[in-house]
Amino acid sequence: MQISDAGLDIIRIYEGLRLKAYLCPARVWTIGFGHTYQVKKGDEITEAMATEYLKKDVRHAQVTVDSHVKVPLEQNQFDALVSLIFNIGAGAFKASTLSRMLNKGNYAGAEDQFRRWNKARVDGVLKPLRGLTRRRADEANLFGSHQYAGIAQAVAAPSVKTKLNSKTNITAVGGGLGVLLSQGENLGGIVDDLKAIGAKGGDLADQMGAIFSADNAPLIAMAAVIGVFAYIIYERSKKVDEHGV
Q1: Residue of 7, 10, 44, 142 with fewest CB within 10 Å of its CB?
Q2: pLDDT value of position 147
Q3: Half-sphere exposure of residue 149, counting CA atoms within 13 Å on the CB side?
């Protein structure tokens, strides 16, 4: 079997393309699309070389699946395993509980085992990494459900850039909207007042004074609060865009 586009997508997206050698979170010198063999500090390559490295590295992972897995595999399962082996190495895979479960025909158990491979040594300590956690989840999903739905999140991630997924911002705005919606009767009153302005063509100042009466004060105050929060979020998103983080 050969890896399909779905499996290659996971590898390309999560490894990323780097043309200069860098230290990954596990403190291993890496270049291209996650290539680590004989990479050292200061190495530089072209994009064409990175693609060649990827083809060779993936081929090694494919051979590992072909030679070590003894049960039938569908394309999605093969792709997920190749992506995993590309990342953790053939030796780790062969010694894993995942491979033992799989070779016993326990496909569901093997799928669950993907998520356990979300740790790497950082400063000598084994720690779970967010990137690995997302990658293992996508690989497990591909292995078990025949599809990979994580590409859009991994590439676009607009919520990270704008900071709109901040717990504080969402809670504040959500709370404000909740109170606003609870003022349904007052909102209806404002709409009626505005209709009256158009129908009567009377004194605008008098009508607006009626709208901003004491009865509507809670709604008006909440609208002001929501406006402040919206402005804060907008300003933060502009700063984020300017600094590119």
Answers
A1: 44
A2: 61
A3: 5
15 as an active site residue: the answer is: yes
Catalytic-role residue among 24, 44, 47, 111: 24
Q: How many CB atoms lie within 10 A of CB 79?
A: 28
CA distance 148 to 7: 9
Show the CA angle centred on residue 210, arms to residues 208 and 216, nearest 5°.
105
pLDDT for 129: 93
Name the helix (H) or strand (E) containing 211: helix 204-211
At residue 190, the pLDDT reads: 36
Alpha carbons 116 and 135: distance in angstroms, whole number: 11
Same domain, 96 and 126: yes
Catalytic status, residue 111: no
Count of structural domains, the chain: 2
Does residue 152 sit in the same domain as residue 235? no
Segments forming the whole domain that contains residue 176: 160-243
Cα separation, 76 vs 81, in Å, equals: 9
What are the tokens at 178? 């909740």
Do 124 and 55 lie in a common domain? yes
Are 150 and 164 part of one and the same domain?
A: no
Chain segment 110-147, per-residue pLDDT in tens? 999 999 999 988 888 899 999 999 999 999 999 998 66
Q: Which of the following is catalytic: 15, 47, 74, 111?
A: 15
Same-domain check for residues 132 and 15: yes
pTM check: above 0.85? no
